[in-house]
Amino acid sequence: QLQLVESGGGLVQPGGSLRLSCAASGFTWDYYSIGWFRQAPGKEREGVSCISRRGGSTNYADSVKGRFTISRDNAKNTVYLQMNSLKPEDTAVYYCAAVVQPMCVMSTDTYTNWGQGTQVTVSS
Predict the structure, then answer these.
(1) Beta bridge partners of 35
(2) Residue 46: enclosing H or E segment and its boundaries?
(3) DSSP reduced 3-state for 112
(4) Of 95, 124, 89, whose CA–CA distance to 20 is shortest?
(5) Based on CB atoms within 10 Å of each CB, which residue in 46, 51, 96, 106 is the most buried?
């Protein structure tokens, strides 16, 4: 019974930065690995990054590696996605998702709990 709420999206210029937050409610938070996904118009949802249940392991899509950083604060029941050097290609609805696994993967069908999404638009 985990609920996820994303925030922090918005309009940003190319080269700018945003930090997305995924806030969770539910007493089972510590059981979950968390993934960030995005979906642009006309495209399938793709994995962006994920973090293991204790934050010790992370994965990134090649397209965002070196620009995005995922982190986790279990005390605050929150996962963050720091996005730097944003490109127009990063424009999408970003979702966080959770799965009861100690490690994380970026396959959409692995995740069982999803937030509502937050829009990120990178444009001049």
Answers:
(1) 50, 97
(2) strand 46-51
(3) coil
(4) 95
(5) 96
The residue count for the chain: 124
Measuring CA to CA, which residue among 12, 32, 17 is closest to residue 77? 32
> Is 29 in a helix, a strand, or coil?
helix
Distance of alpha carbon 32 from alpha carbon 68, whole angstroms? 21
Which candidate, 98, 99, 89, places its Cα nearest to that of 122? Answer: 89
pLDDT tens figures, 27-57: 667 788 999 999 999 999 999 999 998 888 9
The pair of structure tokens assigned to 46 is 């793709």
The string of pLDDT tens digits covering residues 93-123 is 999 999 998 888 999 999 999 999 999 999 9
Nearest by Cα to 78 from 10, 12, 11, 26 = 26
